[in-house]
Specification:
single chain, alpha/beta, Arginase, Chain A, 2 domains, about 30% helix
């Protein structure tokens, strides 16, 4: 499919002084669809940057539609990491006559890139685009795990239209379902109805309060490593670090914590799409939020080109295997530790009839702490949640 029909070129001269850039700045290493450049070839590419100028369903934050070029202004002025890059920038998806037209175009673009094993970095736009991103996986028949970095769950009411505050409900209730697991990183309790927290527990989804995440940021790594798709609401970052959002609040992640999460995401062999949403340039101060988003993308790229490709699906000879007996289970939990990266996974029992369907899901990324928990004859939460879904 020719996805170029969905895009409009970037007016680079209006956002960036390209004549005075250093030869080692990113602008010179990314194939960009600009007004004076042709649409880039999407074959044999590692990463594609996709802007989406769509904010019609971004609650109280309509001007986030202007974010993609605001972020590019800072992104392409950064210096390239110390390795060869194979990245294209496809420009901005044209806003449709209706928002559903935009969703349709966005879904087709992401699905096409996924089929070619290209990782899209999406610069929104409203976070409601997360639903269209999910539909791209449905169109290729892939069951996935979704992670959001968000101060709330964005469930909304069942009957409410699709917006940046209701997209998760639309994903959960959509049939047929291609969602295996959902994880939230950084929710703030005063923004979340207690009934929503109870629902997450009943669905065996993984929710992580801001305070607990900040207390041990390294535990984010296995959460992110388990994701196929990540959606980041910039309002998850505190106002002092990211003022460019109508819904920004005093509390949230620090900018450097967002960058660390993004690098973990880049390192994940499993992750295949990531998006940053809700950046509102009209509320930004000195471009601070756009600049932070650009640096976060830089960290994702740095992580991507340092991937270890050690997800233990088939050949386990490069792993140390540990067996821990849990009396409560009358069984054992099997752990694998990569000799290459020192990362951990644990194996969850899966019925033989479902093994091919859930091949990427019954080996659950975990941490050394989960192994320590099992050694105390306690069942790790990650193991239990996956077990409930597979049984």
């Amino acid at each position: 499919m020719d996805i170029s029909i969905y895009f409009e070129p970037i007016k680079l001269k209006s956002i960036l002084d390209t004549d005075n850039l250093h030869p080692n700045q990113l602008y010179n290493f990314v194939k960009i669809f600009g007004t004076d450049m042709s649409f880039p070839d999407i074959d044999e590419v590692d990463i594609a940057i996709v802007g989406v100028n769509e904010g019609r369903s971004a609650v109280n934050n309509l001007q986030c539609s202007k974010a993609p070029d605001a972020v590019r202004k800072y992104l392409y002025a950064l210096y390239k990491p110390n390795f060869n890059l194979n990245i294209i920038d496809l420009g901005n998806i044209k806003p449709g006559k209706t928002i559903n037209d935009t969703y349709f175009a966005f879904r087709d673009v992401v699905a096409t890139l996924l089929k070619k094993n290209i990782v899209p970095i999406i610069i929104g736009g409203g976070q409601d685009l997360t639903f269209a991103n999910y539909l791209a996986y449905e169109s290729i028949g892939k069951i996935i795990n979704i992670v959001t970095v968000d101060p709330a769950f964005d469930l909304g009411d069942t009957e409410s239209p699709l917006t940046s505050r209701t997209y998760l409900n639309k994903i959960i209730t959509h049939q047929p379902s291609y969602l295996f697991n959902f994880s939230n990183i950084g929710y703030q309790t005063y923004f979340v109805d207690s009934a929503a927290i109870d629902l997450m527990k009943k669905l065996y989804f993984d929710t992580n309060r801001l305070g607990s995440v900040q207390a041990d940021i390294e535990e984010v790594e296995p959460m992110v490593r388990n994701a196929d798709m990540i959606s980041i609401d910039i309002s998850s970052v505190r106002h002092s670090d990211a003022p460019g959002n109508e819904n920004a609040s005093p509390n949230g992640f620090y900018g450097e914590e967002l960058c660390r999460i993004m690098r973990y995401a880049g390192l994940s062999d499993k992750l295949s799409t990531i998006g940053i949403y809700e950046i509102n340039p009209e509320k930004d101060i000195n471009g601070q939020t756009a600049h932070l988003a650009a640096q976060a993308i830089w960290y994702f790229v740095d992580g991507f080109y340092n991937r270890k490709f050690d997800f233990p699906v088939k050949d386990k000879k490069d792993y140390i295997k540990y067996r821990v007996v849990i009396k409560e289970l009358q069984n054992e939990i099997v752990f694998y530790k990569s000799k290459k990266s020192d990362r951990w996974w644990m194996e969850v029992p899966c019925p033989t009839r479902l093994k091919s369907k859930y091949e990427r899901h019954y080996l659950v990324p975990c941490s050394y702490k989960d192994y320590q928990t099992a050694m105390k004859e306690e069942i790790p939460d990650r193991w239990w949640q996956a077990y409930q879904k597979l049984m």
